[in-house]
Amino acid sequence: MNLSAAIKHLAAQGVPDPAGDARRLFDWAYAIGQQAPEPQTRDTPNDLTREMFDIALSGRAARKPVSQILGRRAFWKHDFIVTPDVLDPRPDTETLVEAALALPWRRVLDLGTGSGVILLSLLAARPGAAGTGTDVSDAALAVARRNAVQLGVQDRATLLRSDWFVAITGRFDLIVSNPPYIAADEMGTLMPEVRDHEPRIALTDEGDGLSAYRAICAGALAHLAPGGALIVEIGHRQGAAVAALFRDAGLSDVCILPDLDGRDRVVCGRAG
User: Fold this and answer.
1) Is residue 7 a contact partner of residue 15, using CB atoms and an 8 Å limit?
2) What single string gives the DSSP state of each residue in 78-126?
3) Binding residue ranges for substrate
4) Residue 146 dihedral angles phi and psi, to the nearest 5°
């Protein structure tokens, strides 16, 4: 299928950015085709490129995320490995990373690390710092370990299976998390790329969307060093509720930060 036909095909399937996605998928297929012995140009791709492009288009037409087709996603300053076992990293989460890097810390804990994009971005940006990332999914932790090696921070990143703080000991200068915050009754409103292709356990708590924050706030002060910070990503309508949970847990200097679109995206608080 040529590029023009591909764009029309994706548009017919309701893909939000058919032209952009078709071009990205063609570039990916073309790079793979370069490995074949048959010569090619962008106007006359070889058989391998055409085959891979058709496979990619089929997946995207079924609303599979582009990142899962390509196997990677750019986030902050790096490319990360992405599989169906982890969330597709989003630019909104960079708000959390930016807030964390504005603070002084040397030891960080990332609860529900998934692919590791938050923890590993922080460690890559702060040489000498060390961190721990936890998740209940062994498959997600396997992806995070691959990403740690890819970024060269594997010696400073401990990745372990834990349900929030259950397997955690010691205190940290910083705790971060992008937990499942979509309420169960909101799952049906999500785009197919998210609802049908990302791990449900990383999206929703199967309740009101706040249970993860309750668990995190309940254990935060016991695992934060004096003056340490807790920073979490939130749904854009959850700012007031999560900020109240922070205050009720005894955290101080609680604030809500917006994302690039001006929506509430991150809640911060301090111990002591």
Assistant:
1) no
2) EEEE--TTS----GGGHHHHHHHHTS--SEEEEET-TT-HHHHHHHHHS
3) 178-181
4) -65, -40
Question: What's 182's DSSP letter?
Answer: B
Residue type, 250: G
Tokens found for residue 137: 């999914």
Helix axes 211-223, 239-248, angle to 10 degrees: 40
Alpha helices (H) in 16-107, listed in sequence order: 18-33, 47-61, 66-70, 94-101
pTM for this entry: 0.94
Residue 250 makes CB contacts below 8 A (sequence gap 6+) with 221, 271
Binding residues: 112-116, 135, 164, 178-181
Q: What is the pLDDT of residue 10?
A: 97
Query: What Cα–Cα distance (Å) separates residue 246 from each residue in 55, 103, 160?
Result: 47, 18, 25
Binding residues for S-adenosyl-L-methionine: 112-116, 135, 164, 178
Instruction: Determine the pLDDT at residue 272.
Output: 81
The 157-161 sheet, strands edge to edge:
157-161, 130-135, 107-111, 172-177, 224-233, 264-270, 252-258
* Element holding 217 (H helix, E strand): helix 211-223
Q: Give mean pLDDT, residues 197-218.
A: 97
Domains, the chain, with CATH or none:
3-62 (no CATH), 83-270 (3.40.50.150)
Question: Token pair of 185, please?
Answer: 């009754």
